[in-house]
Write the structure tokens for this entry.
Amino acid sequence: MTQTLDYELELDAIARAYAASGGDPRDFHATRGGVLVVSGNRALVGRGTEGLTIETEQLSDGIRARIVAHRGAHIADPVHLCFGMVPTRGVQRILADFVIEEDASVRFLAHCTFPNAVEIRHIMEGTVEVGENARMEYEETHYHGDTAGIETLPKMRIRVARGGLYRSTFKLVKGAAGVVDLDYDVTAAEEGIAELFAKIYGKGDDRVKVRESINLEGRGSRGLAKSRIVVTDRASAEVLGEIVGAGPGSRGHVDCMEIIRGGKAQAVAVPLLRVVEESAKLTHEAAIGSVDKRQMETLMARGLSESEAVDVIVRGLLR
Amino acid sequence: MPALLELEGVGLSRGGSEILAGVDLTIEPAEIHSVLGRNGTGKTSLACLVMGLSGYELTRGRILFDGKDIAKLSISDRARAGITLAWQEPPRFEGVSVYDYLSLSGAGKPDRLDPREALALVGMDPLQYADRMLDEDLSGGERKRIELASVLAMRPRLAMLDEPDSGIDSLSIDTIDKVIRTIVKRGAAVLLITHRENLAEIADRASAMCGGKILKTGQPDEIGRFFRNHCEDCAHINSPGQNGYPGVEALAFRGPTLSPSGEGGQ
């Protein structure tokens, strides 16, 4: 990439946005682990590391990326990803394909940052292939500024091969959420493990929709669909945690908790379990309501006010 | 000098049942006072009432702390005045570390204890526990120790400990004795709620409770004997007046007879 003044300015702007989302801009220059920094439809930094290849292609409204962790590669340092836009309006479409080959392991730390969003659509459409006995962890933190002028539409289709592991955390707890429609779908083969975790704090008029679906196709496969959603003001949340137990001896659990703060916030939780193999075992726990009274009174009995106690509980849930 | 805590004819009704039927009790500063009674006799409700928990509003009588009526104070205000409660089954908190939890205890008080010191005082290695999360990964015994550490960290003036030795992986009486004496050494009184007479006997004074009333107050060994002779095998829990205990006025208990396992949510 040619380093122009324009490039430097854009990199600086996205670095500041990255910092606003909780990232450390020094990650962009990390010499170990890979880095991919995308501002709008420009890949400003795209650097693999030993055992990891990152390829990008510019689109009119985003980028296409192919990230491959090669067979047997154990990427010790996290791979930093930054997707964002500094302007107030626009569309960013990320088409991402992750391939984690047999016996490889890699951890991604992704920050998606839109600090000035007034009218932005962030579309993420991705596929993940986790190979046999491979391992992929994906931690994604979003920051959308305070104006809620953003639609976030992450849609991931994931396949976990025999003995593989896929674990992801989607976190949007700082600033406004805007409209979020998260749709993750995993299929796990024999002894494969899939764990999906979403933590979102909706405020104002935010609308949050989460679908976490796990198909336990293989023998002995395991899955966890977990979510912690807090809504306040007039925000609404709808969570579907779905697991299908199709593999012999497969085990799955849906754990969904939604906290409502304020009279006009609304929440819906739908745990959906489907067993199509008699030796599969699926369980769920879903709770919607205000903050747990016993927790709150315990903190108040140590001297915290009611609102301080609620803050501690909510911050913990979304941590 | 007034007693630290003074309960005068305290009554509590819940769901149409009378849970506390006129409790008279005093706790002196730096005193360890145990309330001994079988499950379902109103001990936990008494502590919840003093702490001001929701659903435990005084229906009659007075609660004085330092000579001041606290019946209208919130839980937080009672805690800031120096009252606290360690629950029989303390709740878990997702995403809250042991260190953070202990740091919240008595926050803003200049004399509060450092969380690491509080952990060490309950026999927990701060290096091992400070960063652990206060969630389901802790055993019941570990969680209860942390609750006692939280009470210590707060430096209260009155610590109410509800069945500190109960549950799986329970704490030994020696450990509880040590923690209680540490709390007292730091200037607090302890109201120890228990159904076990050997635990009650570590107190300076003890009271036997049944049917939502204090039956008798005295030296712990005396109350222990009373409990052993009259309460342990009593078939008339919460209706002790039917047997007519020697030296105890027959009680006119107006509530329903509770089962021996009925305590906890009361």
